[in-house]
Amino acid sequence: MSTQADSYGTQSPGSTTANGAEASQSAAHLMELTARATEQWRADAKDEAAALLAEAREQCAGLLRAAREEADQLVATARRTATKTTDEARAEAYQVREQTAAVRQAHERDVARLDQIATDHREHLRRHLTGLLDQVNAEPDQPAR
Question: How far, in Å, are 90, 111, 128 from residue 125 at the CA level?
């Protein structure tokens, strides 16, 4: 019956000390196993965290490198575009200045020609009027027709 009594949680008076020592050793052994397992899990977690951190840093460095390269390419493209646009604007400004100078010269020639025509016409009218006045002054005795 004592076997049955032990299985039901009751102990016989002589086996209490032996079972207590055995239970203490088992508990100590379990605690030691638990401590080792916990330490191993902790070490594994640390290693995994370090590996994840290293991978994240690597990815970060790669992304940063790629972003810098893309930024450098964008800046280079923008500079080329700005240089091209500036060169085109300068060429167009030069053409406009040349065209404006040609139009100005043509207008100045036209103004000089019109000034000469006006001077010639004024001189012609002056001569004509002077001639008419001379005729009028020369014939005072004759009646008007």
Answer: 52, 21, 5
Which strand (E) or helix (H) includes residue 108?
Answer: helix 16-138
- State both tokens at 114: 């019109």
pLDDT digits (tens, 9 = 90+) for 11-44: 555 556 778 888 889 888 899 999 999 999 999 9
User: 19 near 10, Cβ under 8 Å?
Assistant: no
Instruction: Give the Å distances, CA to CA, from 18 to 3, 26, 100.
Output: 15, 12, 119
The pLDDT score that the predictor gives to residue 145 is: 53
Q: State whether residue 13 is helix, strand or coil.
A: coil
The SS3 of residue 3 is helix
Residues of the chain with pLDDT under 70: 1-16, 140-145
Residue 140 pLDDT: 63
Residues 44-54 as b/e (b if ≥16 CB within 10 A, e otherwise) read eeeeeeeeeee
143 three-state secondary structure: coil
